[in-house]
Amino acid sequence: MSAYISSPIRTDSIIRKYKIGLKKGLGQNFLVDTNIAKKIASKANISSEDIILEIGSGIGSLTEVLLSLSNKIICIEIDRLIAKAFKDIFTERLGEEIELIEGDALKLDYCKLSEEYKINKIVSNLPYKIAAPLLIKILIEAAGIDRLFVTIQKDIADRVIASPGDKNYSSYTVKSNFLASYNVCFQVSRNCFRPKPFVDSTFVEIIRKDSSVLLKELIGIQGEIENENKAVINFFKFIDDCFSNRRKKIINSLAGSSKKYLDKKVLIIKLLNEINKDENVRAEELKLEDFIFLYKNIIN
Ligand code: SAM
After folding, report:
1. How far apart are the CA of 57 and the centre of ligand 1, in A?
2. What is this structure's pTM?
């Protein structure tokens, strides 16, 4: 029986055989710790009914372990040479238990993809560079995927779990928490990857929030939703405006980002007072509920 793909010896031999020149820009750091792969699979609580999406499948280090528990995995990989190695390794299982999509994960439509394959879970060691925008994109688009289990850069995990006033609290924190809640499961040392990245990682469980409840909160019960995703995107634009200058008071950040806020200064101060804040407050001091309250009353 051959060693696991996630064993250092097998990973090295695949890299050598296919002459894979690993690209830092694409976050090509392969998992070389089978215990971590098994720990990920166990935390993701996979059953044979699950249809899993794995983004950035690489040479299949995690795929192999996930496949021992699940009957169907949809993989996405951007690198053609790595995809070639993957197809050779899993040749007998392709088209049956595994579907490989060769392409850019940032360009896919996750609403269509999740419906087409009936995906209910994501389990991935995400490519570092795209992890932050990709998670937001998936949470907005794929209403059917309610659980994501992902390894992400530690500093991104620190941002999603930050509280108001923390140094890591940002517009990304507010957006991420509008869409989902987060459980940090365990840390993954940089030593578990080949080549070794510059940073450590965190394995996180992400639980999507119910979008109908969220939208009701956002646009009020009287609101007419033409396009649900558009409502979320408009709210996120407002969050960006609030954080457009971290060192400025929120009223000045808003005034500086769009003329439409200029004649609403009095209203904004009144609304801030209603949530027990004064006009000097900065965006990083407000919690998600405060942003929803402000948005509903300023924009609608
Ligand atoms: N899943 C494998 C593992 O655990 O060893 C590989 C993980 S590695 C951190 C990330 C993988 O994502 C690489 O194989 C890389 O080529 C791929 N990747 C990078 N950017 C991508 C993108 N935009 N779309 C799809 N795959 C991408």
Report:
1. 6
2. 0.94
- Pocket test of ligand 1: the residue of 22, 78, 191, 200 to mutate, having most ligand atoms within 8 Å of its CB, is 78
Give the DSSP letter string of 54-123: EES-TTSHHHHHHHTT-SEEEEEE--HHHHHHHHHHTTTTBTTTEEEEES-GGGS-HHHHHHHHT--EEE
Find out whether the beta carbon of 61 lies less than 6 Å from any atom of ligand 1: yes
Domains of the chain, first to last = 8-209 (3.40.50.150), 212-298 (1.10.8.100)
**pLDDT tens per residue, the chain (300 residues)?**
579 999 999 999 999 999 998 888 898 999 999 999 999 999 999 999 999 999 999 999 999 999 999 999 999 999 999 999 999 999 999 999 999 999 999 999 999 999 999 999 999 999 999 999 999 999 999 988 999 999 999 999 999 999 999 999 999 999 999 999 999 999 999 999 999 999 999 999 999 998 777 777 777 654 554 567 788 888 999 999 999 987 889 999 998 888 888 889 999 999 999 999 999 999 999 999 999 999 999 986
CA distance 291 to 31: 39
